[in-house]
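Try this one yourself first.
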């Protein structure tokens, strides 16, 4: 049985940390799930991480459903959250229609939307329909072009107050968790103390209720990308390259396949 949104909320009440990852395919999601990750987010970061896009704004509902289905087939225990792509929640009606697609077609348990006050009506419509919602405030990748790139948000008082206001609103609307992306650690701590839902930090310091990273980033698959907040637990790009190079050599030298690998 998968964890429910209620169970995720309960973890904050019990003081348990949440371990979350963004993953986009069957084998990665299965590994994350079997190693005890609580939430697998099928993030729209898939556009930049796997699909070679320059930003997340070109990711479509069809892209997201394709990856969500693969993740949902793998995950038995974690809560699967589908990330609503840019343009899929412009108004309450489209938000509801597309969120239902994530649940019914994609096999997700919940959806994530970026923003606070600006998407109040959309979140309200989803909560009225009893759809579990994960919030996301701070640095919003879908708005990165508008704010001049991927920059830490909430460094000045006005910026911090806006993020706090968004967080409190989302909490009142009934989100079951809240991603805080690229905000000062002190602001993340303040928000964490003021909301009843668990906060999940990415570039938000150690005082949130949980953490999330993009699985291919912690595996070191993209050597060209290294935000300060990513800790690399492996260097798979190096492993992949040396495996491909060894395979190439074996083929060129007639060493692969061997008799044992032939019929
Ligand atoms: O798209 C994504 O993977 C995300 C997480 C980094 C929070 O939004």
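Now uncover the answer:
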């Amino acid at each position: 049985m998968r964890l429910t949104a209620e169970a995720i909320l309960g973890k904050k009440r019990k003081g348990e940390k949440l371990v979350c990852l963004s993953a986009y395919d069957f084998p990665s999601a299965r590994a994350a799930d079997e190693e005890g990750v609580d939430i697998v987010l099928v993030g729209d970061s898939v556009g930049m991480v796997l699909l070679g896009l320059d930003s997340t704004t070109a990711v479509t509902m069809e892209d997201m459903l394709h990856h969500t289905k693969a993740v949902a087939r793998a995950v038995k225990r974690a809560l699967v959250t589908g990330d609503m792509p840019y343009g899929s929640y412009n108004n309450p009606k489209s938000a509801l229609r597309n969120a239902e697609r994530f649940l019914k077609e994609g096999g997700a348990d919940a959806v994530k939307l970026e923003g606070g006050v600006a998407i109040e009506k959309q979140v309200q419509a989803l909560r009225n329909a009893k759809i579990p919602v994960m919030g996301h405030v701070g640095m919003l990748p879908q708005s990165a072009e508008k704010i001049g790139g991927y920059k830490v948000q909430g460094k000045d008082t006005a910026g911090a107050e806006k993020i706090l206001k968004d967080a409190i609103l989302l909490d009142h609307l009934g989100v079951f968790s809240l991603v805080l992306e690229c905000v000062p650690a002190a602001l993340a701590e303040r928000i964490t103390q003021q909301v009843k839902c668990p906060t999940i930090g990415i570039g938000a310091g150690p005082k949130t209720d949980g953490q999330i990273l993009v699985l291919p980033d912690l595996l070191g698959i993209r050597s060209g990308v290294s935000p300060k907040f990513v800790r690399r637990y492996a260097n798979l790009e190096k492993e992949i390259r040396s495996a491909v190079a060894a395979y190439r050599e074996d083929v060129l030298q007639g060493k692969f396949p061997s008799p044992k690998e032939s019929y």
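Discussion: The chain has a mean pLDDT of 97. The first helix runs from residue 5 to 13.
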